[in-house]
Design a protein that fits this description.
alpha/beta, 4 domains, ten-stranded mixed β-sheet, 22% strand
């Protein structure tokens, strides 16, 4: 039976056989205005072909202009329910397809629904306004995981069902894990470390997620963010979108982008006085706005103090958000560049686990140590960690150490396990008799506190057998604790930048679960210690290459942490030192203190500059990485309490353990004999507990963290 079609959503009536294969033009004239409308109708004999053509014409028909917040009714959550944007998310969605906005930046905390907003944008650019979309994540594994967990769900939304026939018509059934094609466009995912993924690709929409986790360079091609932005040059209507939780101020890409934008903050009204303001954590001063709680130690009341002094209950949060609005600090920048920037923190979140009592609990767990407090500032407040990049004064450290008469080789109270770092020095002649191995023994305790226990120099050729035999003796030595017990090393890290083959063979001989070959990572965003990666070295005996596994250490992260800790002052009048304090004894010389602060951050060049020998600095960083690899960063308060029990002062009692049972490490400091080396301490890893009790100490930054943002 003959059928007909035209570029409209309604099917025309069937025609007689005489009209099959012909076309007809109809003209209608409006009586109110002198306007003529011409419609072309194409008649097709086959009903199936007509239906396919209708769908084809619908695909090439320009989409109706919709705000993404309006289209978001088609978006779905993971459980299949409809997505309702939170009030502060609406402007994010609308700026994604605002013709005036060419660049969008979101510097955010966690738990603010940014990922769901991005997914709604992907759905819009797939089903309503098809575009070529490139999504860049820190690594290709991150991209694959995101596509499996999120993009696959987007393509299963009910609104996407209409695209299935379009795929068969256009022959685009060639999807992969990170490449999804649809009529009119595609979505591709790449990792920032892959230069090939950022070449030979023209896109209309660029979404860079977690840019502060991006690689420093994409191969030899430079900044991956800049490479990705080059992919937009051919687009007539480009969209450049980036979002991330910030990291260190010195290296944060998202912070730099935000500072270049119009810098919008979400202002909400006070329910009492209607004063518009930005929700912020505050400094702890009772007279300043911010989150408040009472009592200070184990709070039961939580509220927000308005800038005018009003007390705001969290029950009013939704009303405040619904009546709030984004206000740009520099609107003239948007008028000139079209760059919209947003900053949001977890105080605005409507998630159940982001209620103000939960955030206060998280703060009380973290603020006593810079190691954990940095995470709170980055992930909960959505702010950069403002570290002091300049090197601390070595003379201050040296003078402070003069009154610390702790004996060399004795483990002090507070320290409950030891790690070591080995720095290989080639000597003035490139090796030979004046070469040496410098071994730094550091003790570690609760809150990231550290004590220098010993510093051993083994002189000799790093390529000779003698120095490594002496290192074996050191590795299996024990150091006496002040309470009379003895401790051995938990981990020892060997920097293999020089004498790579002998260093690796020694680690392999001793046991690589105990002795780890390490090297400094070039990436400024590298974690404290990363999983081992294979590296090929030449075997001088067989002449063949040998594959070794090396752990990369995040030097930038550790140096920033160390310099923050070195700024802490010791306890006065018998008070304990603050958590995180770096204890340097009087038996070190001034050269050690100089080496400990031998590098300084150069913002203009985005790098660390070495001003003198830095063996002591590397020794602390590598020993700290070994403590992290040991798992101490993940131990709960209950795990710490059990682990440090054997090393308490006489008469001291461990802090009360948390009532929730957790897996804790079993203290076992016995060392194997050098002749019979076995895997050591691999069963003592402890997973972090879901909740931690609140410690009673307020000695790190003062009660309730007074002035914490001013300090860091």
């Amino acid at each position: 039976m003959p059928a007909s079609t035209k570029p409209s959503t309604n099917s025309p009536p069937l025609q007689s056989k005489r009209s099959v294969g012909k076309s007809r033009r109809t003209t209608s004239t409006s009586t109110s205005k002198t306007k003529t409308r011409v419609t072309d109708t194409l008649f097709v004999a086959c009903e199936k072909v007509a239906a396919d053509l209708r769908r084809s014409f619908a695909i090439i028909k320009p989409p109706k202009r919709l705000r993404i917040s309006e289209w978001a009714k088609h978006a779905r959550l993971k459980d299949g329910s409809r997505y309702y944007p939170w009030p502060f998310q609406v402007e994010w969605l609308d700026e994604m397809n605002n013709p005036r906005t060419s660049k969008m930046t979101v510097m955010k905390s966690t738990r603010v629904g940014y990922t769901q907003a991005i997914l709604a944008g992907l759905g819009y650019f797939t089903a309503h306004d098809p575009r070529n979309v490139l999504m860049v994540r820190p690594t290709i594994k991150d991209a694959q995981k995101f596509f499996k967990e999120h993009v696959a769900l987007v393509l299963s939304w009910p609104i996407m069902n209409s695209l299935n026939l379009g795929k068969s018509v256009f022959g685009t059934l060639r999807d992969t894990i990170t490449e999804k094609y649809f009529p009119g466009g595609f979505i591709k995912g790449v990792g920032s470390e892959s230069p090939n993924g950022l070449r030979d690709l023209d896109v209309d929409v660029l979404i860079m997620d977690e840019v502060d986790g991006f690689a420093l360079t994409a191969g030899v091609d430079g900044d991956p963010s800049k490479l990705a932005e080059e992919r937009l040059l051919q687009s007539y209507d480009p969209r450049n979108i980036a979002g991330s939780t910030p990291t260190d101020e010195a290296v944060s890409k998202i912070n730099r982008r935000f500072l270049e934008s119009d810098q919008r903050h979400y202002n909400v009204p006070c329910p009492t006085c209607k004063h518009m303001q930005v929700l912020k954590w505050g400094s702890g001063d009772e007279n300043e706005p911010g989150i408040k709680w009472s009592p200070k130690k184990a709070p039961t009341e939580f509220w927000y103090q308005c800038e005018k002094g009003c007390r705001i209950s969290e029950a009013k949060k939704l009303w405040m958000l619904e009546n709030g609005k984004w206000i740009a600090k520099f609107p003239e920048i948007y008028e000139r560049t079209g760059h919209a920037g947003f900053h949001i923190n977890a105080l605005y979140s409507l998630q159940p686990n982001a209620k103000w009592p939960n955030l206060v609990e998280k703060f009380l767990e973290s603020y006593k140590s810079p190691v954990t407090f940095k995470t709170f500032v980055n992930t909960t407040l959505g702010e950069v960690w403002k570290s002091r990049g300049e090197a601390p004064d070595w003379e201050r450290l040296y003078n402070r150490s003069r009154i610390n008469l702790r004996k060399r080789g004795v483990v002090p109270y507070g320290s409950c396990f030891l790690t070591a770092a080995v720095d290989i020095q080639r000597g003035s002649a490139g090796g030979g008799a004046d070469g040496r191995l410098e071994v730094f023994i550091w003790g570690w305790g609760r809150g990231g506190s550290s004590w220098l226990v010993d510093h051993i120099v083994i002189k000799g050729d790093p390529f000779g057998k003698e120095v490594w035999d002496k290192l074996t003796e050191v590795a299996y030595s024990k150091w006496q604790h002040e309470n009379g017990t003895f401790l051995g090393l938990e981990r020892i890290g060997v920097d293999h930048g020089y004498a790579t083959a002998p260093a690796y063979r020694w680690c392999k001989k001793v046991n690589r679960n105990f002795a780890l070959p390490i090297k400094g990572a070039k990436d400024l965003t590298a974690p404290i210690i990363a999983p081992s990666k294979p590296l090929d070295i030449a075997n001088t005996r067989s002449g063949k290459s040998e594959q070794i596994h090396v752990h990369n250490v995040g030097g930038n992260t550790l140096k920033v942490e160390l310099y923050a800790l070195l700024s802490l002052d010791p306890g006065l009048n018998g008070d304990p030192n603050p958590y995180g304090y770096v204890d340097i004894p009087a038996w070190v010389d001034d050269e050690f203190c100089k080496q400990l602060v031998a590098e300084e951050w150069i913002p203009d060049r985005n790098e660390w500059r070495k001003n003198r020998a830095n063996e002591a600095l590397d020794g602390w960083c590598y020993a700290r990485a070994m403590a992290s690899e040991r798992g101490s960063d993940k131990w709960s308060e209950a795990a710490w309490a059990e682990y440090e029990t054997p090393y308490l002062r006489p008469g001291d009692e461990p802090p009360p353990a948390h009532e929730v049972p957790v897996e804790t490490p079993e203290p076992d400091h016995e060392q194997p004999h050098a002749g019979s080396i076995t895997p050591r301490h691999d069963t003592r890893e402890a997973e972090p507990a879901e909740d931690y009790y609140w410690s009673d100490r307020d000695d790190y930054l003062g009660t309730s963290g007074r002035g914490y943002l001013d300090r860091y």
